[in-house]
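Run log // design_07
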């Protein structure tokens, strides 16, 4: 299948990543169905897409016509089986729980035509283990977007052992159609981006724990010294301390103690200091 012939897609999960993925798919002209378990969750995801589209117009990045055309291509669903009828692409973007991803895609896969491309937005979990639950696992690939999806250019395309060359090539072409830059990596724990990001992030947290420097100065070392667009501690707040803890624990279990999360991170998550979404993390955030 030619990436330009993908006309209909289903995104499962209307949260932070899912609504962002739906945004970019619809923006490039793909009829996009955004699914979640409840109508309030779907409505919230669609509202966030429309708010970001409006911001794009206000900042001169989009025309009012582009905003309206994109909105017209979006719809909300609470029944994945019905939403999947007639789609050429399914992207799963539910929380980073292997059993959940396997259950959702395994159940839905039985109702999909064999040539429907199935992608998972996991940032670190095994694509092969997810694909193993899906009929025709050769059509399953990793498609790791970055937050905020409508602004970040990188998409990591992850090739599992059974992913077909055709599906990997189709995924790469689709990423380019979305106006983003793909990299292709093999199915290894943490892939490329999460593995590097977590290594730097955990070390930055250890430096806070050891009182090497302030959060602001540790971040400044990386933004001004190494050209990072955002420091690792501020990025941890943006991603969510709970999310980073989960990824670090997974990588530590697979790759050893060099990815072990510092006690400070565990303590902060236990206190509910999750970063931007809770209002407090390494920085204090206001609405």
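design_07 sequence
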């Amino acid at each position: 299948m030619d990436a330009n012939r993908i006309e209909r897609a289903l995104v499962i999960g209307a949260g932070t990543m899912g609504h962002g993925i739906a945004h970019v798919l619809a923006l490039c002209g793909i009829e996009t169905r955004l699914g979640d378990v409840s109508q309030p969750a779907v409505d919230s995801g669609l509202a966030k897409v429309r708010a970001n589209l409006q911001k794009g117009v206000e900042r001169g990045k989009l025309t009012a016509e582009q905003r309206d055309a994109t909105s017209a291509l979006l719809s909300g669903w609470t029944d994945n089986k019905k939403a999947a009828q007639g789609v050429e692409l399914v992207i799963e973007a539910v929380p980073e729980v292997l059993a959940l991803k396997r259950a959702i895609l395994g159940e839905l896969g039985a109702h999909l035509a064999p040539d429907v491309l199935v992608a998972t937005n996991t940032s670190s979990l095994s694509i092969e283990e997810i694909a193993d639950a899906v009929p025709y696992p050769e059509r399953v690939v990793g498609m790791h977007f970055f937050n905020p999806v409508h602004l970040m250019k990188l998409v990591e395309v992850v090739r599992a052992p059974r992913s077909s060359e055709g599906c990997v090539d189709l995924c790469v072409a689709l990423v380019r159609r979305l106006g983003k830059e793909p990299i292709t990596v093999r199915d290894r724990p943490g892939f490329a981006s999460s593995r590097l990001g977590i290594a730097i992030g955990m070390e930055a947290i250890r430096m806070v724990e050891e009182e090497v420097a302030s959060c602001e100065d540790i971040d400044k070392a990386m933004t001004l010294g190494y050209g990072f667009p955002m420091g690792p501690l501020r990025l941890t707040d943006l991603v969510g301390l709970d999310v980073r803890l989960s990824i670090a624990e997974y990588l530590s279990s697979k790759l050893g103690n060099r990815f072990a999360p510092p006690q400070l991170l565990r303590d902060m998550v236990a206190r509910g200091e999750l970063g931007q979404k809770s209002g407090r993390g390494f920085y204090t955030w206001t609405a």
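The radius of gyration is 19 Å.
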